[in-house]
User: Fold Arsenate reductase from Agrobacterium albertimagni AOL15.
Amino acid sequence: MNVTIYHNPACGTSRNTLEIIRHAGIEPDVIEYLKTPPSKEELAKMIAASGLSVREAIREKGTPYEELGLADPALSDDQLLDAMIATPILINRPLVVTDLGTRLCRPSELVLDILAPDAFTSAFVKEDGEAVLDAEGKRIV
Assistant:
């Protein structure tokens, strides 16, 4: 399975998502989007494929969202995408693209929806101790 994660190693959710993917036996293409942001077209395609609006894909917390005036409802999707490309910390993360779909994986276990369901055979626990998969690799609800 082909998997690409737009990753920020400083983000716990992003780290957990990456480790879930690796727990499935997949070594994904890891793109540190703060260093190598996607093109505007790639970002727009991922957002659309994930079922989100452009506004839903913007990260507000810990970013210059307010200072840049991005809360203004008059801003178009095109203007918001331009801001996200110019200031990549505004791209919410992690975005994951697989053969089964694209998701903004917040929380990290949303990545399970776009990985093969039979890929897991053992438990997985997030770095904060929260169990995601049981001893048989089944999702904990």
